[in-house]
Amino acid sequence: MKLGKILVTSAWPYIQHVLHLGNLLPILSADVMARYYRLKGHEVLFVSGSDVHGTPVEVEAVKQGVSPKELTDKNHELVVELFKKWAISFDNYTTTESPVHKEFVMDFHRKVAENGYVFTQESELPYCPNCKRFLPDRFVEGECPYCGYKGARGDQCEQCGRLLDPTKLIDARCSICGASPLFRRTVHWYFDLPRFSDQLREYITNNKQFPDNARNFSLRFIKEGLKPRPMTRDSDWGIPAPFEGAEGKTLYVWFENVLGYVSATIEYFKTHGDPDRWKEYWFDKDSKVLCFIGKDNIPFHTIIFPALLLATHEGYNLPWNVSTNEWLNFEGQKSSKSRKIGIWIDEALEMFPADYWRYTLMANRPETSDTNFTWKIFLEKINSDLNDTLGNFIHRTLTFINNYYDGKIPKPEKLDDIDRKMLDAISEYFKEIDENLSYFHIQAATRKVIELAREGNRYLNEKKPWKTIV
Ligand SMILES: [Zn+2]
Ligand SMILES: [Zn+2]
User: H or E stretch including 298?
Assistant: First the structure.
């Protein structure tokens, strides 16, 4: 039987800073699943990249007094090195500044516009009289009108995940200088999202493997009524908006970074001398596209990205699953660079080897609700699971084979009941681990692996092979 191809993707991290452990979750989860599908014999391509555009980068560059390009070139290089040390098995980790990406995105949006899904509209947007610029997205902060979160941004509330419109923020202020913005008229290009409401509802309802968090959020979002979304920004840093009359405007990051899943596939095959093969992943109906994201990215992956793919009328595969993690808190609090709360992926590796972190993060993966990282849990997982159980089992087994059998595994002679029970347990665990992973229950799968090692220790204790050997 020929197995279908699987494109594994993880949300493109913003790299205004090095990532914290919570930011790494989608990437690490994607890595685990890419390895799993490769072991199962699928042809797998695992792609992602640095999201270098957008206001988080611009805001940070202004603060550091460097250009966005300088900041992101430096951070991209750093992050690429770190992902190697974390043993993330990317086939292509690129950036949104890649020429392949920029060209693909501009062509793509020209098509979406030709198909009649783009229109212009004049609106009032926040403008800082002090900084003399419009304040898109993270350049403006205020209180969320839905949940009351004080640090909501112009495009989205991090707390409740809702997409926002900057005019709705309560007590809006410029995030560079803190001044209250004025509202000025400007023209923007809008994506006609409401026209996809029915198709999206059907897509989300029919994709049974979507996790509950992504499905419920998305269906509620559609039920509340989709609105046209602005695709352009008054900003220099980004991909030029390819629409007639849009000179000087760039594309809003969420209308280009998600297209990176496609462009990174194109780039991979282009550099491997097979420029048409990307289509097998994006158009063959037995291929699957998998997205791994954090919960604040849900609407962009279950609503905006599929709607954009539909808007081309070209028959793209829509994401088959959007595996969404909840938050990993640090000692009970949200990670925050400015408040110095959390652990960053560079300093983590200065303290302990990558495998310790990879295991602890997956064993504690927030799948259905937020989880908490504490040093106590970390030590328990390392000492009890990895050292006492798994490490001990492997060490005992290898030492035994080395001491008595010269490092070669001998042929078993007669099996007794204990042996047969153990062999049955192994195939039972194997099945359960496989099943858990096929449902993206990575946390449960890691637990089963440790239980199997525990069974192995029990077996050795019971059989005491070092006593019966002659
Ligand atoms: Zn300002
Ligand atoms: Zn909110």
Answer: helix 298-299
* Residues around the ion ligand 2 (C-beta < 5 A): 144, 146-147, 149, 157, 159-160
The neighbourhood of ligand 1, an ion, using CB within 5 A, equals 128, 130-131, 174, 176-177, 179
Both tokens of residue 120?
A: 């212009």
pLDDT digits (tens, 9 = 90+) for 174-225: 999 999 999 999 999 999 999 999 999 999 999 999 999 999 999 999 999 9
According to DSSP, the residues that pair with 322 across neighbouring strands are 291
Q: How many CB atoms lie within 10 A of CB 39?
A: 11
Distance 140 CA to ligand 1 centre (A): 9
> Is-above-0.90 flag for pTM?
yes
Closest CA to 412 of 396, 423, 426, 403: 423
Q: What does the pLDDT average to over 98-109? A: 98
Q: Which structural domains are found in the chain, ordered by start?
A: 6-116+197-227+250-371 (3.40.50.620), 118-191 (2.170.220.10), 374-468 (1.10.730.10)
Q: Which residues contact 420 (CB under 8 A, 6 or more apart)?
A: none
The average pLDDT across 368-396 equals: 96
